[in-house]
Design brief:
binds pyridoxal-5'-phosphate, 41% helix, six-stranded mixed beta sheet
Length: 335
């Protein structure tokens, strides 16, 4: 299966009415910091609070009429998107997640009427359970990132970005399994070949970064991070998203937990946004001086807002945050 710009346009027609066309909001503060027009693509305005509804809605729309239900593994937001889109079509949904997924995300998925299955300590364990359910119960399995319909759905963000700002020079994309970055890069570069698309991951457990360095998908140890939505591997049998990222991303940058912490504060205090850690990695890279030289307008994808509110409150009040085996030292904003 080869994905093309036409697939992204088809996805847009299919998901209209389920997923929102989101605003591209200027950030006066980050424009000053970067010296360029700096824009925030507010995927937090999706009905599920994250962009994953785009890919999920497109994949659910592509299912045959006789399909009775779907299953997936998820770090939280894909499951939420699947639950939402499945309910809209009257389908059963089973979402498999590891014990690392924050309770807030689990609760959000249950509230949408999906069955939740917590299994193991990694995305790989959740993936294995989803595949088992697919066979045992005859459910359709929808990968969070390595699925043509999902990638085309996420790619609709690229269409919207260039419609709103044809002069964009760079897009900053939070990177995990690469469905988002691959889809956006596919669409944006088909329209504007010289646009730069940069993937950003957390240092702790950056599976795509390690895989690109190795030249093939590799396993990484999955650990706790403020960017919990970026956890998990890319799948050793990856079919689509690894090659898209390898061929289309201009760079992949890693940020620390302290940098993510500070970026979440910045988005809150300067732009009044509640953004989860995964959403803040592009801002973290900018503030840490890790981006390549900027030559024009920049857009950062603010991918989701589904953060544990206790953790969020600790961050905006400058407290220490402990997640699993890591403690991120607190610091008041601006201190
Ligand atoms: C899933 C997710 C990402 C990363 O998307 P991939 O397609 O897995 O690379 C980024 N941010 C949030 C909030 C997510 O839920």
């Amino acid at each position: 299966m080869r994905l093309a710009l036409a697939d992204v346009y088809s996805a847009r027609a299919r998901i209209a009415g389920v997923a929102a066309r989101t605003p591209l909001a200027p950030s006066p503060h980050l424009s000053t910091v970067s010296g360029q027009d700096f824009l925030l693509k507010l995927e937090i305005a999706q009905p599920i609070g994250a962009f994953k509804l785009r890919g999920a809605a497109n994949a659910i729309a592509a299912l045959p009429d006789d399909c009775t239900g779907v299953t997936c593994c998820s770090t939280g937001n894909h499951g939420r998107g699947i639950a939402y889109a499945a309910r809209a079509r009257g389908l059963r949904a089973v979402v498999c997640m590891s014990e690392l997924v924050p309770q807030a995300k689990v609760d959000g998925i249950r509230a949408l009427g999906a069955e939740v299955c917590i299994t193991g300590k990694s995305q790989d364990d959740a993936q294995a359970e989803s595949t088992r359910l697919c066979k045992a119960e005859g459910l359709a399995e929808i990968s969070p990132f390595d699925d043509a319909s999902v990638i085309a759905g996420q790619g609709t963000i690229g269409l919207e970005l260039l419609e709103d700002r044809p002069d964009l020079d760079m897009i900053l994309v939070p990177l995990s399994g690469g469905g988002l970055a691959g889809g956006i890069a596919l669409a944006a570069k088909a329209i504007k070949p010289d646009i730069r698309v940069i993937g950003i991951s957390m240092e702790r457990g950056a599976a795509m970064h390690a895989s690109l360095a190795a030249g093939h998908p590799v396993e990484i140890e999955e650990v706790a991070s403020l960017a919990d939505s970026l956890g998990g591997g890319v799948g050793l049998t990856n079919k689509l998203s690894f090659a898209l990222c390898r061929d289309l991303l201009d760079d992949v940058i890693l940020v620390t937990e302290a940098e993510i912490y500070r970026a979440m504060q910045t988005l809150y205090y300067e732009d009044r946004l509640v953004a989860e850690g995964a959403s803040a990695v592009g801002i973290a890279a900018l503030q840490a001086g890790k981006l390549p030289p900027l030559n024009g307008p920049v857009a950062a994808i603010i991918t989701g807002r589904n953060v544990d509110m206790n953790v969020f409150t600790q961050i905006v009040t400058g407290k220490d945050v402990t997640l699993g085996d890591v403690t991120i030292k607190g610091q008041a904003y601006g201190a």
